[in-house]
Amino acid sequence: MSDLAKVFQRLKAQGDGALIGYVTGGDPKPEFTPMIAEALIKGGVDILELGIPFSDPIADGPTIQAASVRALEAGTTPQMVLGMGGEVKNKYSLPIVILTYFNPIFRMGVERFFRLAKSFGIDGIVVPDLPVEEAEAYCEAAESWGVDTVFLAAPSTSNERLNRIVECTSGFLYVVSHFGVTGAREALEDSTVQLIQRFLPCTTGRIPLAVGFGVSKPEHAKGIIASGADGVIVGSAFVNIVHKHQSNVEKMLEELELMAGRLKEATKRYM
């Protein structure tokens, strides 16, 4: 059983949902990322997702696009982000997921990418622009190196295609809560709850279901877990804090830990 599967299994036994925290690796500078990760973990993040900065992040909204620009300008490379993930994994024994577009994997070579990921202890990979229909070689390489493949499902995903995605997914299914790009939103939409309820019959007993895109407040997390999801993925809310306080690291880390703590409390089903 993978480390990702173990976390979801443990939390389910406790009656809790998972908090998956995303930040862009190297934002605003590579040396900040381990400190940012530590603050999120202290706050209660169960799984850390690190983004490899990319020049054309088509699934991301302005917040994470700007984070990618800052990280790239600071000289961040894919291998550096894998190393950051490994550093955090070694120190905290926390599952690490890498989010990357396919171009950096293609340029590095699929086999080499997964070999490096495994060598750093990376647990799972998310590739927003890789359709499951074109992922056979990618999945074979991931399986051979023992790295989970986290695929995405969106509101437009048919039940037939969802089954195919679930068959190829390990670790957890990343549910895109709404059409469009990433970014913090004010309210949890009814359509997100309906989407969870539509997907659950296909995922229950097969793969944990975690919801991202627009999840930025404790009430969002609470509603998503109450609707039956196994976890929530929060990114832009954390990245906004990094950007806002990048000139005051102490304040940044304090705010990140507080935000993570509030979100983690909201994933507890007894609330």
From TrEMBL:
Annotated metabolic or biological route of this protein = Amino-acid biosynthesis; L-tryptophan biosynthesis; L-tryptophan from chorismate: step 5/5
Q: Which UniProt keywords apply?
A: Amino-acid biosynthesis, Aromatic amino acid biosynthesis, Lyase, Tryptophan biosynthesis
Q: What is its EC number?
A: 4.2.1.20
Signal sequence extent? none
One annotated GO molecular function is: tryptophan synthase activity
According to UniProt, the reaction catalysed is: (1S,2R)-1-C-(indol-3-yl)glycerol 3-phosphate + L-serine = D-glyceraldehyde 3-phosphate + L-tryptophan + H2O
The entry's cellular-component GO terms read: cytosol
By sequence similarity, the record places it as follows: Belongs to the TrpA family.
User: What quaternary arrangement does the UniProt entry report?
Assistant: Tetramer of two alpha and two beta chains.
The UniProt function text for this chain reads: The alpha subunit is responsible for the aldol cleavage of indoleglycerol phosphate to indole and glyceraldehyde 3-phosphate.
Q: Which HAMAP family does the record match to this protein?
A: Trp_synth_alpha (MF_00131)
Protein name (Swiss-Prot/TrEMBL): Tryptophan synthase alpha chain
